[in-house]
Specification:
Blueprint lengths: L3 H14 L4 H6 L14 H34 L4 H31 L2 H4 L6 H9 L13 E3 L5 E3 L4 H9 L30 H24 L4 H11 L3 H10 L1 H4 L13 H26 L1 H26 L6 H29 L6
Antiparallel strand pairs: 1-2
Helix pairs in contact: 1-9, 1-14, 3-4, 3-8, 3-12, 4-7, 7-8, 9-12, 9-14, 10-12, 10-14, 12-13, 12-14, 13-14
Length: 362
């Protein structure tokens, strides 16, 4: 989900601030990758495979629900006004199922995003599944287009989670049926999250989503983790807090109906932050023995700092779920604090990588 070069530079700058200069290295024993070869990276791959399997299962459910919704629309000859008139209850149920399936799929990916987005050989799938923009931003646009059963093409429409979420929760008008009011419960008004997505588009999106989820699962099985991969993931993915907090600030969870952000309406961005950091904690647990080879005290401190950052995100989420209303100002303050701590952690890990002689990919 990240631009590797930019964030690796952040990590390297933090490294300097953490004492990674020539003087400190003179008194710190250096270890080589060979000396750290006994580090067990299997838990990272096991964790990844567990989650790629979960993602495939979740997206299969999403695709099945999209097919059922498509079948309803097809039976009405895609006359959505007639569909609502004759089958309002069935449509309401179909949309609730789709929304629930999307919510289920979200943590299956977010918990492993630290690995997928942080490992260069897997990172393209993060762009495709969760991070890429539409074609209006060529630098970060997804590398695919969609073609529906009816033959309509959507060129570089955006990442799959955004496509599905903004479609089934009704926050992206261009994926909604035109000219029909999505009053799914028949109470004479439309309230969030009532939506009436274009069934042709939604089926195409979930079908291709499943294809790429399965591709990621295949690539994950082929992937042989290296110490460089693990360090890169921590250095690249930890200092991404500010962008997540910005998305949270602009989402419905803080801005309500005035939200500028069309995505992140189903699950709070705080949940994503907690889940991503949980994956990073697992990665660090695997590489900590190698960090201890160059600085045992720092290795323990980094573990503590990372655990505190993870707990910080979890506490904020618990407070939000408990009814606390955060403001945009709160999000800015909390995001600044989280980013500062995250950059320090990335710097510590980057320093250890340098002392071990590891070359982190950009």
């Amino acid at each position: 989900m990240r631009r590797f070069f930019t964030l690796l530079v952040v990590g390297c700058l933090a490294l300097v601030g953490c004492g990674g200069d020539d003087t400190s290295n003179e008194t710190t024993p250096k270890a080589t990758p060979a000396a750290a070869a006994n580090v067990d990276l299997a838990p990272i791959k096991d964790y990844l495979l567990e989650h790629t399997d979960r993602l495939v299962t979740s997206v299969e459910l999403l695709n099945r629900d999209a097919q059922e919704y498509y079948n309803l629309a097809e039976a009405a000859d895609f006359d959505y006004a007639k569909l609502l008139k004759d089958n309002r209850a069935e449509v309401q149920t179909a949309l609730k199922e789709l929304q629930g399936a999307h919510i289920q799929a979200n943590p299956a990916y977010e918990e492993m995003e630290g690995v997928v987005a942080g490992v260069p050989s897997l990172a393209d799938y993060d762009v495709i599944i969760d991070a890429g923009s539409d074609g209006s931003d060529p630098e970060s646009a997804v590398p695919f287009s969609l073609t529906t059963k009816a033959g309509k093409e959507y060129k570089q429409p955006g990442n799959f989670f955004a496509l599905v979420e903004t479609s089934v929760f009704g926050t992206e008008p261009k994926f909604q049926v035109k000219g029909v009011t999505p009053d799914l419960d028949g109470d004479g008004k439309v309230t969030f999250p009532e939506a009436l997505p274009d069934a042709d588009f939604l089926l195409a999106a979930t079908t291709d989503f499943l294809k790429y989820a399965k591709e990621l699962d295949t690539k994950a099985k082929e992937w042989q983790p290296t110490l460089e991969d693990a360090y890169t993931a921590v250095v690249v993915m930890t200092p991404t807090m500010s962008e997540y907090f910005d998305a949270w600030k602009n989402s419905r969870f803080i801005a309500g109906g005035k939200a500028e952000e069309k995505g992140f309406v189903a699950t709070s961005r705080l949940s994503d932050i907690r889940d991503i950091l949980g994956g990073i904690v697992l990665i660090y647990d695997s590489i900590q023995p190698s960090v201890e080879k160059v600085n045992a005290d720092q290795a323990a401190q980094t573990k503590t700092d990372l655990a505190k950052l993870h707990e910080f995100a979890g506490r904020l989420l618990s407070e939000e779920e408990g009814g606390k209303k955060f403001t945009a100002s709160d999000a800015d303050t909390l995001g600044t604090e989280a980013q500062r701590n995250a950059e320090a952690i990335a710097g510590q890990v980057s320093q250890a990588a340098g002392q071990l002689g590891l070359k982190l990919e950009d």
